[in-house]
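Possible regression after last week's pipeline update?

I re-ran a chain I had predicted before the update to compare outputs. Posting the input and the new output here so someone can diff against the archived version. Not blocking, just want to make sure nothing changed silently.
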Amino acid sequence: MKNLRWLAGLFGAAAIWLLLYNNLEQFADLLLQIIGFTRATAFGEALHFFVYEVPKVLLLLTGVVFVMGVVHTFISAERTRAMLSGKRTGVGNVMAATLGIVTPFCSCSAVPLFIGFLQAGVPLGVTFSFLISAPMINEVALALLFGMFGWKVALFYMSMGLAVAIVAGLIIGKLNMEHYLEEWVQKLQENKISAEADGEVISWPLRLREGVSHVREIVGKVWLYIVLGVGLGAGIHGYVPENFMASLMGKSVWWSVPVAVLIGVPMYSNAAGILPVVQALLGKGAALGTVMAFMMSVIALSAPEMIILRKVLKPQLIAVFAGVVATGIMLVGFVFNAVL
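New output (post-update):
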């Protein structure tokens, strides 16, 4: 009986979600009409973008995070560490990068799990494949890319992001830079622990409850980033001239990709916060590869992440990590511009 109540509630929530998502455009149009604005003006266009995009991004995020919250009840951190420890170079990098897709971490919150991997004896290059993949191509980023730009862009982004994470991890692993870990981390590796996955069986109501808890935790943390990101995107969408963006970030400007990466690194946001900005830039004539490189650098190479990593890694290893990943991101930007 309890299972049936949870199932009925799930179907009811899904129906409401679909109803809201399919009528966002009409809601935005109606609101503009009520308050007396038109999309023919810069302010009206910016307001329409804001009113439409905020609930759209929040609904997409809520749906995906709920589903992944349920999925995570099948995949614990202990199982993940046990799965990766002892894997040889190459196989471990592919597994770690793939696992990053189903972990909803920003670049900063992925660092504690990165330390846990090292403690469990996971090779350094493999841990870096996870650290790069987790913020850059997690399920939130892919769901929002799919909702905004379609499956081709989302799939290509995932493929290129995985390639960057795997190759960068392989390169760092081949450089044998374990001695550039901070001493306390090296001691953790010397006294590594092996975590065993527990065999606890979880009922479906508990799994669904975990999905709801996941939504509260993650959406509660990122909603402000979403509002701020959409607000910035709305300003770009309504007020920034198309010719300006095309001249600064268009395909014809060869230096636009490295400049976009350099601009993105000092910034800090997550996929939910930066994607509305990306959408607005594209609407103003920016090249897809250039804005994808900008997005990747913001969420995978943020300045706060570097500060946190300094507690774990020595400056030489941080520099190698940032340089290898930045080079990979720039190549992704050029490939995107050439192909799409």
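Follow-up from reviewer: compared with the archived run. Confidence is low (pLDDT under 50) at residues 192-198. Marking as no regression found.
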